[in-house]
Design goal:
Structural class: alpha/beta
Strand content: 15-25%
CATH topology of the largest domain: Rossmann fold
Largest sheet: 6 strands, parallel
Radius of gyration: 24 Å
Helix content: 40-55%
CATH architecture of the largest domain: 3-Layer(aba) Sandwich
CATH superfamily of the largest domain: Response regulator
Order of helices and strands: HHHHEHEHEHEEHEHEHEHEEHEEH
Length: 340
């Protein structure tokens, strides 16, 4: 089995130069790096990361804990995380909690035992207990996609309230007045904030909020499907549905198809989160698009800044805007009335 001295001999450099190259620490000229990388491939050398981690007190491993890895919004965040971490010489462990606090805390315990250098967390619910578990161990943590006003920690999120407000105002501008919201679990900040933005837009339009038109569920396709059925049974005259994330939107549209309702001819649909362009052959949904890749990238940059001691003592909360993308699914009340 080849060792670092064998690589140094093959590349014609000192062992310390090989160490700098593989650990991305200290200067290594491009020419030497090229020879070292060629020697590593030729000899089949595998660096001992555990040994180097014990010396440096770092494992060069980070973790991203998500609630639903199948959701394109979170996979895009993961792409931003992985790209940025890889450029900095770190690998990323991905964990999926399925919105379960028990699974979330199980994964965090495992990651702490493996001595990851830092953790990015999308909390299943409030996240307070989970963040405190990590902070007690002195491990840097950044929360993504959640608002945690009562906790001192770094956060990167989108402005869910303003995005929901703008999306509801769009529906109002199209003439819709009977608008139902299908949101996520109570106590999850993204679900609560989107409901707040929806209510604010209605109240400004002189329409008092009506709990008969507000549905809490899970951030899942099945929940969107069930909430859409409940909404249509409970409310007559609905002209528009606001779904609080993309998978809720998919579930709602499936329910409407089974009910024989057309989008947008019979009911308009808008939602939070866009789909990556390669997954969509014909863009149709009107959405509040969150900058998912940028959220992942910024979260990693903050985490690495904490690890390197480059950030001030106070914690950062980065709030990015959502962009309203108008497509066919939002329709308009005049268009819907004419086609009925």
């Amino acid at each position: 089995m080849a060792n670092i001295r064998d690589v140094a001999k093959r590349a014609g450099v000192a062992p310390i130069t090989v160490s700098r190259c593989i650990n991305n620490s200290g200067y290594c000229s491009p020419e030497a790096r090229e020879r070292i990388e060629s020697a590593i491939v030729e000899l089949g050398f595998v660096p001992n990361r555990l040994a180097s981690g014990l010396r440096s007190k770092r494992t060069h491993t980070l973790a991203l804990v998500l609630t639903d890895i199948t959701n394109p919004f979170f996979t895009t965040i993961a792409r931003g995380v992985e790209d940025t971490a890889s450029e900095a010489g770190y690998t990323v462990i991905f964990c999926n909690t399925d919105e379960s606090v028990a699974k979330e805390q199980m994964y965090l315990q495992m990651l702490l035992e493996k001595r990851v250098d830092g953790i990015l967390l999308v909390p299943a619910v409030s996240g307070i207990d989970s963040v405190n578990i990590v902070k007690k161990q002195g491990t840097p943590i950044v929360v993504i996609d959640r608002r945690l006003p009562d906790l001192r920690t770094d956060v990167v999120r989108c402005d869910s309230e303003s995005g929901a407000y703008d999306l509801t105002r769009l529906l109002l501008s199209l003439g819709h007045r009977e608008i139902v919201i299908l949101t996520g679990p109570r106590g999850v900040s993204t679900a609560d904030d989107r409901l707040t933005g929806y209510r604010r837009a209605l109240e400004e339009a002189g329409i008092p909020h009506n709990e008969e038109k507000e549905f809490y569920g899970a951030f899942s396709q099945q929940s969107g499907y069930e909430m859409a059925y409940q909404a249509m049974k409970k409310n007559n005259g609905i002209t528009a549905i606001f779904a609080a994330n993309n998978v809720i939107t998919f579930g709602a549209i499936k329910a409407f198809q089974e009910m024989g309702l057309r989008v947008p001819e019979d009911v308009a649909v808008v939602g939070f989160d866009d789909l990556p362009a390669p997954l969509v052959t014909f863009p149709f949904l009107t959405v509040a698009a969150q900058p998912a890749y940028e959220m992942g990238k910024k979260a990693i940059e903050i985490l690495l800044g904490r690890l390197d001691g480059e950030l001030p003592d106070h914690y950062e909360e980065v709030v990015l805007p959502a962009a309203i993308v108008v497509r066919q699914s939002s329709g308009g009340i005049r268009e819907i009335t004419a086609l009925k």
